[in-house]
């Protein structure tokens, strides 16, 4: 899964930048710090909670992927189920973050943040039903 | 249509109208419209169901064709043995020495659907036979398809177009051909699921709602469980997303809808045992994965961009996205070459390289519905829709919303695929109906619009250049006014449309161009209605004559118009069922495998599920070799009976002699040095069955079985083969290793029993010669010299 891995690594790097690290090279110092400052200042607290959850999911997915790549993929359906649960949950949480973001209010005229949370719950329940069915 | 005509605001403020409109309050207007919609939908569903019942009314309620017999048998297993037995069903009677794990190698959606309906009816104390549910499932689902198409088209344009599209797909022969009553095939429910998935996808995209994305995934799951054509959806939706991204139309709605659809839909599709790990392992599914990854990247970049408004940074990020996407694509190609990702399967690959199947996989090319269609097929199946279709696509281009892009891509892709393969006319039909309905409803709405343009006396200068702009403006204004009239009925279609106050303000009140008077309106409307009427007549005619014949019984008309039914197939199958041992193995060409196991209930060697090419080639080799070589094959496979179809007496063209070349080709693909196609042609390259046939042909098993005792019917003279239009062999062939066991009334089905080896150890030709009282030629030869008993 090259695209997913690429996406995960890139956004992981960005997320770690945004959360803690400051060891960036000098040439890209200013955009990154702008990004970091802007993120810290402009992001509401709730979205930061979701972001923390996203980072956790991403780390979990990466660990599973590394385990599968390095050690074994033997019960392949279990790997798929576990990995798909992190990916699916990531995507659903990211959707929730996008929909609940007050800046995106005009993009989603039909989806209020509460409705977005309801959608998130519904999607997660369905997702985990399939995950448990597939674990084997 | 009604929605367009009774535009509420138009009658009031000073605009002149061509005819008086009924004055209704807004509320009662809405009520009337929704009542009309309901009635129209029900009538369409009624028409869709009743136009599919020709075969049931004329003949009887019976399963048609070949594939549905397996589905029917599997459904019976499901209803009698329960779901879990069905899920793990190992069919030991198919593919005789091998067996088939049917539960894991079939799409279970169809059987589970009819099983659920069966359970529902029985829980309501309506004891319907499972056969009737299976026969009538396709008509019932065609009604649902009409409804789903209505919803889909209403999301594209408006309710008026939706109703037209529903009416079109309700009776379009391109869809009826695969969904008449008795055609219990996967396509029966698949087209409904296709349209429903597409509708939900469009809805998810418009709202940007994860809920509808999940609903799309669930219907996608149902579709995966129902039909192998789900790959079409798997590639259509990512293609739509990709095109939207490339058009610069990425939005958060796109991210939410596609990501929730893909993440759940892919995991859900892997629950179907027949699909298994294909969604992560095969090339057909890689487009969806790639677009998923790309979408994550783009969304992340958009997020960063919202935080950093620097221009260089944007450039940097765009470059980053392009780089990563290229790298990912390269990695995918590398993985495919390295073998981690399976390349395209032959069935799909033959859609791109159209000569591939014929060269490498003759079994795919041998199926008649895998051939490219000729032009008349399009007109035959879609009549006037086929020339309204491009108009509709053009109109969608003019007002290019996100969901219109979907229909345009769908139109292009489905047109290509339908041009390559007759069978895929089925996936073309819905989009043709949708765009034809959009074209037709635009036409009708333009000419039924009661608003009269005000003729203004113009000054001279600059008329020509003003013309074009004004025409475009006024047509768009007409569209805008129509939309304005329907905001109440379909508000969600307002969502992503760019607001156009300009047109409304200027062109609404003083339009110089438009339709003047009643006469032009009248002519165009009558003409359109005439077209629609002819369409209905054509559809009914085609359905009645071409698509409503059960292939199990052959109907013909006598000179006085009375019907003559030829029922040889069931005659023979029931003979097998009642007069043979219950474990007697029947060998036939694979076309009849499902019917034999469904109707005769006997084990078969090969059937229509062509999963083992070598086994089919074995049967082909046994059919096209001479008796001495095919008898060991028959014995090794425990064959008790050999069943062939012979249409020479009656003129039934789909018989085994006409399929013979495919048997030879398939056998040749596996044993090139034992079977050679050229041996069956005369030196002039002719495929002959009369006395001019080659020696290999005359000695082949199938030839002998087909013409065995054929001349007896003609009093010993060479019989006339009415399919090949030549005389048969002048001397009837003799069979040494087989006995004729049964021949049906019109000689269509002939069943031969394989002789057991001689108890005294003699070879069978020798036994026959001995019993026939023939003297051995070399009476003085030593026995060890061999059994040259033949002649």
UniProtKB/TrEMBL annotation, chain A:
It is a multi-pass membrane protein. The keyword Transmembrane helix applies. One of its GO terms (cellular component) is oligosaccharyltransferase complex. Pfam families: DAD (PF02109). The chain crosses the membrane at residues 52-72, 116-135. Residues 1-30 are annotated as: Disordered. InterPro entries: DAD/Ost2 (IPR003038). One of its GO terms (biological process) is protein N-linked glycosylation. Belongs to the DAD/OST2 family. Component of the oligosaccharyltransferase (OST) complex. PANTHER family: DOLICHYL-DIPHOSPHOOLIGOSACCHARIDE--PROTEIN GLYCOSYLTRANSFERASE SUBUNIT DAD1. This is Dolichyl-diphosphooligosaccharide--protein glycosyltransferase subunit OST2. It comes from Sporisorium scitamineum.
UniProtKB/TrEMBL annotation, chain B:
Pathway: Protein modification; protein glycosylation. GO terms for molecular function: dolichyl-diphosphooligosaccharide-protein glycotransferase activity; metal ion binding. It is found in: Endoplasmic reticulum membrane. The gene is SSCI57300.1. Its cofactor is Mn(2+); Mg(2+). Its main location: endoplasmic reticulum. Catalytic subunit of the oligosaccharyl transferase (OST) complex that catalyzes the initial transfer of a defined glycan (Glc(3)Man(9)GlcNAc(2) in eukaryotes) from the lipid carrier dolichol-pyrophosphate to an asparagine residue within an Asn-X-Ser/Thr consensus motif in nascent polypeptide chains, the first step in protein N-glycosylation. N-glycosylation occurs cotranslationally and the complex associates with the Sec61 complex at the channel-forming translocon complex that mediates protein translocation across the endoplasmic reticulum (ER). Gene3D superfamilies: 3.40.50.12610. Belongs to the STT3 family. GO terms for biological process: post-translational protein modification; protein N-linked glycosylation via asparagine. Keywords: Endoplasmic reticulum, Glycoprotein, Glycosyltransferase, Magnesium, Manganese, Membrane, Metal-binding, Transferase, Transmembrane, Transmembrane helix. It is a multi-pass membrane protein. Its EC number is 2.4.99.18. It comes from the Eukaryota. The lineage of its organism: Eukaryota, Fungi, Dikarya, Basidiomycota, Ustilaginomycotina. This is Dolichyl-diphosphooligosaccharide--protein glycosyltransferase subunit STT3. Residues 585-635 form the STT3/PglB/AglB core domain. Residues 36-436 form the Oligosaccharyl transferase STT3 N-terminal domain. The chain crosses the membrane at residues 35-55, 133-154, 160-176, 188-204, 254-274, 286-304, 316-340, 377-397, 404-422, 522-547. It catalyses: a di-trans,poly-cis-dolichyl diphosphooligosaccharide + L-asparaginyl-[protein] = N(4)-(oligosaccharide-(1->4)-N-acetyl-beta-D-glucosaminyl-(1->4)-N-acetyl-beta-D-glucosaminyl)-L-asparaginyl-[protein] + a di-trans,poly-cis-dolichyl diphosphate + H(+). It holds the Pfam family STT3. GO terms for cellular component: oligosaccharyltransferase complex.
């Amino acid at each position: 899964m090259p695209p997913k891995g690429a996406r995960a690594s890139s956004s992981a790097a960005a997320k770690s930048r945004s959360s803690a690290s400051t060891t960036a090279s000098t040439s890209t110092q200013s955009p990154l710090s702008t990004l970091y400052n802007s993120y810290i200042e402009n992001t509401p607290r709730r979205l930061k909670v979701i972001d923390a959850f996203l980072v956790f999911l991403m780390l979990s997915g990466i660990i599973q992927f590394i385990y599968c790549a390095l050690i074994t993929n033997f019960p392949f359906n279990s790997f798929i189920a576990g990995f798909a649960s992190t990916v699916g949950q990531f995507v659903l949480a990211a959707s929730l973050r996008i929909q609940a973001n007050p800046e995106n209010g005009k993009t989603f005229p039909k989806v209020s943040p509460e409705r977005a949370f309801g959608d998130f719950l519904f999607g997660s329940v369905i997702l985990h039903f399939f995950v448990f069915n597939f674990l084997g | 249509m009604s929605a367009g005509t009774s535009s509420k605001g138009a009658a009031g403020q000073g605009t002149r109208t061509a005819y008086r409109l009924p004055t209704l309050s807004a509320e009662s207007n809405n009520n009337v419209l929704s009542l009309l919609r309901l009635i129209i939908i029900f009538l369409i569903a009624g028409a869709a169901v009743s136009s599919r019942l020709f075969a049931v009314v004329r003949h009887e309620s019976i399963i048609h064709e070949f594939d549905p017999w397996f589905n029917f048998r599997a459904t019976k297993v499901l209803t009698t043995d329960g779901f879990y037995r069905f899920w793990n069903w190992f069919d030991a009677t198919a593919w005789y020495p091998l067996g088939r794990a049917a539960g894991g190698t079939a799409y279970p959606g169809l059987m589970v659907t009819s099983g659920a309906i069966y359970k529902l009816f029985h829980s309501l104390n309506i004891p319907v036979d499972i056969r009737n549910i299976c026969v009538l499932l396709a008509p019932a689902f065609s009604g649902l398809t009409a409804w789903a198409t209505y919803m889909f088209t209403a999301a594209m344009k408006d309710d008026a177009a939706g109703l037209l599209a529903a009416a079109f797909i309700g009776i379009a022969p391109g869809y009826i051909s695969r969904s008449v009553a008795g055609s219990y095939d996967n396509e029966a429910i698949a087209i409904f699921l296709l349209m429903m998935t597409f509708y939900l996808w469009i809805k998810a995209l418009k709202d940007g709602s994860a809920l509808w994305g999940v609903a799309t995934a669930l219907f996608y799951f149902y579709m995966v469980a129902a039909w192998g054509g789900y790959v079409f959806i798997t590639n259509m939706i990512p293609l739509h997303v990709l095109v939207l991204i490339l058009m610069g139309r990425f939005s958060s709605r796109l991210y939410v809808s596609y990501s929730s659809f893909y993440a759940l839909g892919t995991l859900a599709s892997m629950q179907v045992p027949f699909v298994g790990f294909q969604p992560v392992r095969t090339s057909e599914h890689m487009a969806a994965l790639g677009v998923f990854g790309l979408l994550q990247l783009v969304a992340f970049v958009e997020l960063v961009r919202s935080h950093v408004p620097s221009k260089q940074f944007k450039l940097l990020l765009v470059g980053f996205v392009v780089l990563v996407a290229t790298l990912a694509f390269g990695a995918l190609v590398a993985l495919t070459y390295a073998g981690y990702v399976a390349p395209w399967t032959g069935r799909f690959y033959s859609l791109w390289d159209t000569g591939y199947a014929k060269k490498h996989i003759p079994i795919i090319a041998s199926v008649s519905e895998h051939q490219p269609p000729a032009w008349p097929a399009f007109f035959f199946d879609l009549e006037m829709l086929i020339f309204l279709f491009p108009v509709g696509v053009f109109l969608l281009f003019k007002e290019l919303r996100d969901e219109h892009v979907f229909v345009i891509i769908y139109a292009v892709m489905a047109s290509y695929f339908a041009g390559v393969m007759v069978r895929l006319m089925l996936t073309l039909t819905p989009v043709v109906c949708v765009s034809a309905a959009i074209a037709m409803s635009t036409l009708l709405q333009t000419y039924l619009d009661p608003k009269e343009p005000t003729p203004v006396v113009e000054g001279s200068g600059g008329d020509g250049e003003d013309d074009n702009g004004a025409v475009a403006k006024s047509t768009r204004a007409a569209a805008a006014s129509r939309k304005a009239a329907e905001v109440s009925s379909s508000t969600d279609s307002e969502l992503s449309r760019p607001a156009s106050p300009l047109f409304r303000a200027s062109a609404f009140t003083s339009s110089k161009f438009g339709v003047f008077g009643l006469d032009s309106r009248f002519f165009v409307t009558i003409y359109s209605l005439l077209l629609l009427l002819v369409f209905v007549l054509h559809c009914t005619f085609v359905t009645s004559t071409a698509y409503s014949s059960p292939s199990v019984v052959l109907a013909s008309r006598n000179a006085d118009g009375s019907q003559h039914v030829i029922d040889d197939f069931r005659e023979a199958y029931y003979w097998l069922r009642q007069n043979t041992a219950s474990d007697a193995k029947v060998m036939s060409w694979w076309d009849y495998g499902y019917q034999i196991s469904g109707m005769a209930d006997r084990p078969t060697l090969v059937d229509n599920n062509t999963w083992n090419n070598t086994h089919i080639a074995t049967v082909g080799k046994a059919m096209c070799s001479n008796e001495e070589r095919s008898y060991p094959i028959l014995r090794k496979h425990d064959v008790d009976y050999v069943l062939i179809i012979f249409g020479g007496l009656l003129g039934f063209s789909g018989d085994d002699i006409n399929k013979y070349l495919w048997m030879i080709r398939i056998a040749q693909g596996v044993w090139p040095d034992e079977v050679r196609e050229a041996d069956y042609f005369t030196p002039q390259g002719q495929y002959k069955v009369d006395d001019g046939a080659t020696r290999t042909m005359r000695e082949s098993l199938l030839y002998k079985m087909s013409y065995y005792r054929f001349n007896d019917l003609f009093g010993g003279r060479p019989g006339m083969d009415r399919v090949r239009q030549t005389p048969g062999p002048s001397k009837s062939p003799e069979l040494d290793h087989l006995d004729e066991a049964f021949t049906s009334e019109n000689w269509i089905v002939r069943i031969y029993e394989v002789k057991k080896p001689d108890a005294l150890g003699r070879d069978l030709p020798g036994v026959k010669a001995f019993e026939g009282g023939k003297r051995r030629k070399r009476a003085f030869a030593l026995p060890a010299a061999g059994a040259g008993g033949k002649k």
